[in-house]
Every structure is written in C-alpha cells, then in structure tokens.
Amino acid sequence: MKRLLLLLFLVAFASCMGTRVVYDYDKAVNFNNYVKYSYYPELNSGLTQLDEKRLLRVLDSTLLTKGFILDEEPDFYVNITSNAYRSQPQNNVGVGVGGTGRNVGGGISIGLPIGNSGMQRSIQFDFVDVAKDQLFWQAIAEQSFRDNASPSVREQQLKAVVDKVFKKFPPYTK
C-alpha cells in the first residue's frame, strides 16, 4: 500500500513539472531542401527584449548544430510567438455533507482548490517556406516560469524549451 501511494505521488509530481511540446508538420515536405533560415521580418515574439535575445541566441546555436545556417536569403523563416498566463490550480478536493430525515433528503457539496496558481508560458515556433509562403513545421511548448527569475535561470529555462522542441527536428520522413 505504501508503494502504491508513493508511486501515485511521484506520477502526480512528475505530471506537474517540465515542458510539454506539441508538434505538427507537413508530411509532404522534404526537410533536406531547407538549409538557410532567417527570422520573420516582423518578428513580434511577445517576450521581453532580453528574453527574446536569449531565445534567439540559443535557437541559433541549436539550429547550427543541426546543419542550418542563418542567412539573409533564407529558404525558410522562423516565426516565434509567446503568451504568458496564470494557470488555475489543477487539484481539487470535494467536501460533501448530507442527511436524511424521515422522507426528506438533502446535501451540499463544494470543491476546494489545492495548491497555488502559477505562471505558464506558451512559445510557438513556426517554420514558413519563403518561396511558397506556407507553414511546413510548427511546435508549441508550454512551461511554467517565474517573472522574477534571475537572468541565468531564464536562459536555462529557454534553453530547456529549445532543447525539448528541437530534440526531434527535423522529423523523420519516409
């Protein structure tokens, strides 16, 4: 019984941590045709200026290790958008009271939230073919973060997002 409770606790704890990533891409696209990239001309990431610089620096480094080159005449554009929001507590406890008397019954129940709401950030990466002006790859990452984190912590968080997002990029195509 103790092991079961420990396992449930660990699963619940692990589900609250980390970065969640969702991918989508055009299966008809040959990713070998793309070598040079640049950022969307009207890039408006929604991040602070300093966080945007950190993210672009980490992204440039990651794409370079994967064989992509930052160029003024790109094959594709990278567009980045982000959104920060306060998440609602996910855990609730229900409390109910009821009673009966003779032929009459009644009850009341309420849900009590457990835990704090925290800040979440969603960062979306879009890769758009320059010649066709069509989206061919997209990833959306969600991660909890703190507004008052130090610059080094912010950079580590952004690096963790980029590492997770681009871990399986380019996707394997048959």
From TrEMBL:
Residues 21-171 form the DUF4136 domain. InterPro entries: DUF4136 (IPR025411). Pfam families: DUF4136. This is DUF4136 domain-containing protein.
